[in-house]
Design goal:
This protein is of the alpha+beta class. It contains six helices and 14 strands.
């Protein structure tokens, strides 16, 4: 498998000298996942019923795929009463290097689920990816990280030509309703997933019961781990 190179360009000198660049996502496996047992009662009894998501290789791959940019300072979220029944949404953070901004109340620019405050905020990327020719990057909320008190919106960027920081590089995100407190330094902000731009076409296939049975039998020949032993391919991000 060919090895490609991703470069990260600092937005300015202060960032180059003081802010950590995006790191492999495997360095940010959440504690709840690390502590999750492979089986619900701590031992194997009936794998079909007792396995947890800890044994799901595709799920683990999603957590460790690509690169993560972490927050480089604490961000304090508060609700301050301004009059009876009315609270002011406030965010406090250091100004330099600036990590984020509040664009303001969202009206009709895009749909916001009821679980989030109707304020659009944006991350300021400190490091901009530079990819080989023909490659783009999916910039998205850290995959399967529903535990985070915010949600980063997704976008696809041609980072083979768009390689330096501009005002348009801002990445929108939302804050969960009810959350107040600190988003601590070192929290995953967004995930960077490089991919090659290929053209695709879809084709509808007829059901092949023999092939399906062969695949299933290879997986079921193990009490657990059949997918990893027969199909999984290691992905490397350094």
């Amino acid at each position: 498998m060919a090895t490609q190179e991703i470069k990260f360009n600092p937005a300015n000198k202060l960032i180059e000298q003081n802010i950590i660049s995006p790191q492999p996502a495997r360095n940010y496996m959440p504690d709840w996942y690390k502590l999750l047992p492979a089986f619900r009662d701590g031992k194997f009894t009936d794998g079909a019923q007792d396995r947890t998501i800890k044994l799901c290789v595709p799920f683990a791959d999603s957590l460790s795929f690509g690169y993560i940019q972490e927050t480089w300072q604490d961000i304090n979220i508060s609700l301050n009463p301004v009059s009876p029944g009315i609270e002011e949404f406030k965010v406090n953070y250091l100004e330099d290097p600036k990590i984020m901004d509040i664009r303001g109340k969202v009206e009709k620019s895009f749909f916001i689920p009821e679980d989030f405050y109707d304020f659009e905020l944006v991350w300021h990327p400190a490091w901009i990816p530079e990819l080989p020719k023909g490659y783009s990057a999916l910039i998205t909320h850290p995959l399967n990280r529903f535990d985070l008190p915010f949600y980063t919106l997704s976008g696809i960027v041609e980072h083979d030509t768009y390689t330096h920081s501009y005002p348009e590089s801002n990445i929108p995100f939302l804050i969960k309703k009810g959350f107040t407190g600190v988003i601590p330094k070192g929290t995953p902000m967004y995930q960077i997933i490089p991919f090659k731009r290929d053209n695709w076409k879809s084709k509808k296939q007829k059901l092949d019961l023999k092939e399906q049975s062969n695949i299933n039998e290879k997986i079921r020949s193990y009490p657990f781990g059949g997918y990893k032993k027969n199909h999984w391919v290691k992905k490397t991000f350094n």
